[in-house]
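Our collaborator T.R. sent over the components below with a one-line note: 'Predict the complex.' Nothing else. No constraints on interfaces, no templates requested, no preferences about which chain binds where. So this is a plain run: every listed entity goes in together, and whatever single assembly comes back becomes the starting point for the next discussion.
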Amino acid sequence: MRAGLEHCLNIDDLRRLAKRRLPQAVFDYLDGAAGDEVTLRRNHDDFNDYEFLPHSLVDVADVALQTRVLNTDIALPVMMAPTGMSRLFHHQGEIAVARAAHRAGTIYSLSSMATYSIEELAAQTSGPVCFQIYVWRERELVEKFIQRCKEAGYTSLCLTVDFATAGQRERDLRNGFTVPPRIGPRNIVDALRCPHWLWHLLTTPKMALANIREHADVSEALFSVIQYTRSQFDPSLTWDDVRWMQAQWQGPFAIKGILNPDDARRAVASGIKTIIVSNHGGRQLDHAATPIGILPEIVAAVGNKAEVILDGGIRRGTDVVKALCLGARAVMIGRAYLYGLGAGGEQGVDRALAILKQEIKQALMLLGCRSVQALDQRYIRRRQGNCRLAS
Ligand code: FNR
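Returned assembly:
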């Protein structure tokens, strides 16, 4: 493949460019998942179980991509999922992604595990930002997060509920991956292959968990993400905590990591209005159901009592359109924009969003549908298996 963002026609091209520009262990942290990575592969492959049923002779001279989610109007049905420690992939990290999201007219989600703080990020963007919460054993920290988000003008809160413990990410374990990345005899040649990345690692302030700087002794040390989260996150989280958090926040609130229709009903009963169907991009429980596979059951379970967002496996505009046909209000992307970030910083994220936007628009036109809000089951069906014409 030729170098440069301008030659990236699709998200997979961005992935290849990011792979070339990042040290192997950093790329593996971005790209990898839990166990045998079965769920990671299926998250995308399961979109192939569906095929489109285009409607012909529809006037599609103008197609509308805008929709509304978490009480916010967005220009396209794609939001940025929260991803921790984005400075690993580019020195501008979360700020680059948030700026690109704002330019594209969509919501950025800042992870609790970010390398820029709630306040630093808010100072750099006036776009809508959702804060993603993990629950530390030290609950006071969570209360403070909520207060800080209110003061900084965050528009929504999202609680990730699929992290009772860290998944077994074997690429990271094998690589001895730490934050910040440790450069030593084992990987110096690999790091020198990425001079731009290495220069910024050595010349910018040390990477740390910016939101808990004053709390964590880890902020000054190297830490393993898996070990850190296992020791600090509270595995005793229940629905009572969800209600407590909603009461503290009193604004648009989403639960991320729902895969079971019973949980979706439970969420609705707890007053949740936004459900994010997700398996954490395959990074937690390998062999968990895939978001696109389970989406129709979740949509049926919640009816019109909540909006449903699909998160996981989106690599093409057609994936977005399929999710919307099956009842999602919008989708979240994680790796798709991180590949862009690794490939070319803020411009790379712009490129990822532009690619998806163009692909969604093209799919709508070819599908004979004038608006993302009009997509429904009439435009899609589950593939019926290979039909061979009898000779
Ligand atoms: C994540 N994800 C994630 N989720 C979350 O709730 N909090 C977090 O801090 C992170 N961190 C994180 C880091 C990296 C490098 C990745 C790739 C993912 C999961 C993320 O929000 C989202 O669920 C998945 O990325 C969706 O799958 P795709 O779009 O990557 O296939």
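Summary for T.R.: The pocket of FNR is lined by residues 29-30, 43, 81-84, 111, 113, 132, 160, 256, 278, 280-281, 283, 311-314, 333-336, 338 (CB under 6 Å).
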